[in-house]
Design a protein that fits this description.
The chain is of the alpha+beta class. 40% of the residues lie in helices and 20% in strands. It folds into 4 domains: 6-13 and 78-130 and 138-162, Reverse transcriptase/Diguanylate cyclase domain (Alpha-Beta Plaits, 2-Layer Sandwich), CATH 3.30.70.270; 15-77, MutS, DNA mismatch repair protein, domain I (3-Layer(aba) Sandwich), CATH 3.40.1170.60; 170-227, 5' to 3' exonuclease, C-terminal subdomain (DNA polymerase, domain 1, Orthogonal Bundle), CATH 1.10.150; 243-340, Dna Ligase, domain 1 (2-Layer Sandwich). Bound molecules: thymidine-5'-triphosphate (TTP) and magnesium ion (MG).
């Protein structure tokens, strides 16, 4: 397998960074997002607040005890989501192979990108600069031959940092790497490893695969692989919900299209129920209809229909009329659906699946 080039980017104190960007009075004070009042917990805080020991998931009361001057603001996820979309958009201009892990974090596989002289380091530098200039917040980046090292690398020089683990540096880098840094190693596993005298990946290597598999099963093998800096997990471009649909198979074939029209209304009602649960906020781009005849031949038709919020029976009737050429043919299944406008991802990304 040829050497891969993976970039991991992670925004610095993301929610807090957005708040500081949008309100200059918050820039020079210790700031927590969430945790106001007596009950809430801090979602994140800026680096000034971290100097006092404030952390994510800490009750607000404890955070204020540690940092009496702490300013708190309420969380505003819709706003962070917009910023996130803008950042992901910049990443996707470089490559389609972007795997977001959360609003503020993503892996990119740039192995085949020839821009920036094909240098992943230059690409990461470029992404950091663009996000800073166009979005107004800082991101940290890690560059490495695989995901787990790239993720560790992005954290290495945080905040506003870039760290590169070159293929030839992997051995040296992992040798002294603390096992706590490994993916999937929490307090429990770390304690077990410490009990075996293991502190670093070098110690893990020395312990050997057999002992690790014996003690930790499948995870033991993964630990052994990571201890050598190996991780073959691909960057996965996640599939976004692109459509919502309902369909119904009839226990007795509907004799003709007239009969179909009578069930169309109840199908439309079902569809709206699903939509209200699954994606009323997403803008509809197309309506589609599906029909399967008694001989199992299946036909679909879709038409662009924007600016519809609750697609109704009347909206689907023209599609049915257009699709059906023989109104007397018995129908076994009828389905309706909507496709959403895809604001999050470029069309090229969808090609991977379509
Ligand atoms: P992180 O990337 O873990 O943290 P961060 O971006 O705030 O800070 P860092 O500079 O260390 O990367 O999480 C991203 C966002 O997710 C964070 O801004 C707020 C949210 N979040 C929570 O809501 N609860 C949590 O417990 C954590 C860890 C994060
Ligand atoms: Mg972050």
């Amino acid at each position: 397998m040829p050497q891969r080039k993976i970039i991991h980017v992670d925004c610095d104190c993301f929610y807090a960074a957005v708040e500081m960007r949008d309100d200059p009075t918050l820039r020079d004070v210790p700031l927590a997002v969430g945790g106001e009042g007596s009950r809430g917990v801090v979602t994140t805080c800026n680096y000034k607040a971290r100097a006092f020991g404030v952390r994510s998931a800490m009750p607000g009361s404890e955070a204020r005890r540690l940092c009496p001057g702490l300013v708190t603001v309420p969380t505003d996820i819709p706003r962070y989501r917009l910023v996130s979309q803008q950042i992901m958009g910049i990443l996707r201009e470089l490559t389609d192979l972007v795997e977001p892990l959360s609003l503020d974090e993503a892996f990119l596989d740039v192995s085949d990108i020839t821009d920036h002289r094909g240098s992943a380091t230059l690409m990461a530098r470029y992404l950091r600069e663009r996000v800073k200039k166009e979005v107004g917040i800082t991101i940290s980046a890690g560059v490495a031959p695989n995901k787990f090292l790239a993720k560790i690398a992005s954290d290495w020089e945080k905040p506003d940092g870039l760290f590169v683990v070159k293929p030839e540096d992997v051995d040296g880098f992992v040798r002294d790497l603390k096992v706590e840094k490994l993916f999937g190693v929490g307090q429990v596993t770390a304690a077990k490893l410490h009990a075996l005298g293991v502190q670093t990946c070098g110690d893990l290597q020395a312990l050997g695969a057999n002992v690790l598999i014996e003690r930790f099963g499948k995870q033991g093998y993964r630990l052994y692989e990571m201890a050598h800096g190996r991780d073959e997990r691909p960057v996965v471009v996640s599939r976004i919900a692109k459509s919502v649909s309902v369909e119904r198979t009839f226990s007795q074939d509907l004799p003709d299209t007239a009969a179909c029209e009578t069930v169309l209304a109840s199908l439309a009602a079902d569809l709206n129920l699903r939509l209200s649960r699954k994606g009323r906020e997403k803008p509809i781009h197309k309506l589609f209809i599906k029909i399967r005849y008694s001989d199992f031949s299946t036909h679909t038709l879709e038409r662009v229909r924007e600016n519809i919020r609750e697609p109704a029976f009347e909206d689907y009737l023209p599609l049915l009329t257009e699709l059906v050429t023989n109104r007397e043919r018995p129908v076994r299944l009828l389905g309706l659906g909507v496709r959403f406008r895809n604001d999050d991802a470029p069309v090229t990304q969808l090609r991977l699946f379509d």
